[in-house]
Amino acid sequence: MLNSARCIAICALLCCVHASCPPRCECSEAAHTVKCVSKDLRTVPAGIPGYTRNLFITGNQISRIGPDSFKGLDNVTNLSLSNNRISEVESHTFAGLRSLRSLDLSNNQLVVIHPEAFTVLNQSLRELNLSRALYNDSSVMDLATSLRWSSLGSLQGLDLSHNSLIYLPSRIFSHLTSLRRLQLSNNSLVVIHNSTFSGLEHLEELDLTLNALKTVPEEGLRELDSLPGAAFLLGENPFTCTCGIEPFALWLNRSQGRIKNSEGLVCAFPASMRNTSMLAVSTLTLGCHQRDAGADLALQTSYVFLGVVLGFVGLIFLFVLYLNRKGIKKRIYDMRDACREVWEGYHYRFEIDSDPRLSQVSSSADV
User: Fold this and answer.
1) Residue 105 buriedness (CB in 10 A; 0-12 / 13-18 / 19+)
2) CA spacing 20 to 30 A to 122: which of 9, 169, 338, 355?
3) What is d(CA 249, CA 277) in angstroms, rounded to the nearest whole number?
4) Do the Cβ atoms of 25 and 50 come closer than 8 Å?
5) Which is more confident, 7 or 181?
6) Which residues contact 358 (CB under 8 A, 6 or more apart)?
7) Is the pLDDT of residue 134 over 90?
8) What residues have CB less than 8 Å from 189, skipping those under 6 apart?
């Protein structure tokens, strides 16, 4: 009887353990891992075991996640939600994951990101992957707000690669004071503005490869210099090596120690400069300023010459007037007398027309 009771208890315990794994998921208590991969799930499954530290819910059809999605999962350290077509992340979605250190939301279609979407108690989150995750420009603005409101002071790695970003809102990273790695590769960034990387004093690596940077203006160079400990990746950008790029080229030469593979940075345009090392551009294009100075001097000379010619023509005109002053004076008097005679004739006719008696006298005189 005792043995039977033990068998029943063991069977019941095994059944409970088995039942604790959600349907269509794979659970491993030994590895503290639960995987729900490509199971066509519409929501985060309920009943995920409390021992779970590594949770993979990927390749499904989950459109929205919120505070009720991850209740009771205090031990989850690594959470992967990639490739689920998630379009909305509500505020405090991950607040209950007290031990969360790594969050992967890559390959989703985020349209709406609520202000405190990434808030985690104890600020435990260290890595946030949003590669291929942002759907449009409005989601970028939502992300900027969320990064400011979500208490991510301990975040060390942020991946925003492959998002077709054209611009970055000012001070978007200003609250990520502990950030060490920022990946912005494979976007369409065309310029670095002032305050783009404000607040990232501890940044160690900034990846800007495969963007649309034709140059970095002096404002952007000052912004990069505000990251004293950061190494930069700038390869495979369409640098245009024309007049005006010299400050950037000089900065590259001065900062070679901070730029990974600086020798591999080459000009993309114009065709005559293609594949020319950016490190050599500063010496090859210094003639731009000389030509500009020559052009300015030529333009100033032209203006001076034109002024001299116009002044000379004016003097000749005044001299001609002086030589013909008597004739001009006679012509003016003649014109004055002619105008006076015409005016007196009009005045006389007006008086006759306005007085009937004068009109009759005029008629009798005509007879």
Assistant:
1) buried
2) 169
3) 10
4) no
5) 181
6) 351, 352
7) yes
8) 165, 166, 167, 168, 208, 211, 212, 213
